[in-house]
Amino acid sequence: MQASVAVFPDVKPPSNRKKSKRAKLKRIGARHWQQLMRVGVPQQDAKDLAIAVVRYTYLACSPSFEEKRLIGRYCQHLGAAGLWHLELLLGS
Fold first, then answer.
1. What pLDDT sits at residue 51?
2. Residue 8 — pLDDT band, cuts 50, 70, 90?
3. Which among 17, 22, 25, 89 is least buried, having the fewest CB atoms inside 10 angstroms?
4. What is the structure's pLDDT at 19?
């Protein structure tokens, strides 16, 4: 004998919006990381800079002290990679 399963037409499955936004930001961050490495930023610094730029641009988060230090050190590389944000650089 099969147990009957109640179906609730008003209940919607949880949205994948957060997942899709997170995945999109990860893709953008990976693209920024590659761009920074192409212009000569070392791998770990490029990763940290890419995260800082994504957080600033898409999540409106101010850079941390360490991120500000990296931004100041690699400001020319950010410009060469096309990731120049005047407000981001002025805040560092």
1. 94
2. very low
3. 17
4. 76
What residues contact residue 59 under an 8 Å CB cut-off, 6+ apart? 25
Q: Identify which of 88, 74, 67 has the alpha carbon closest to the alpha carbon of residue 37.
A: 74
2 part of a folded domain: no
CA distances from 61 to 1, 52, 69, 86 (A): 57, 8, 16, 15
Taking the C-alpha atoms of residue 82 and residue 62, their distance in angstroms, rounded to an integer, is 19
How far is CA 86 from its chain centroid? 18
E strand or H helix at 86: helix 86-90
Whole-angstrom distance, CA of residue 22 vs CA of residue 1 = 44
**Range(s) of the domain holding residue 24:** 17-90
Is residue 50 included in any domain, yes or no? Answer: yes
Residue 56 lies in a domain: yes
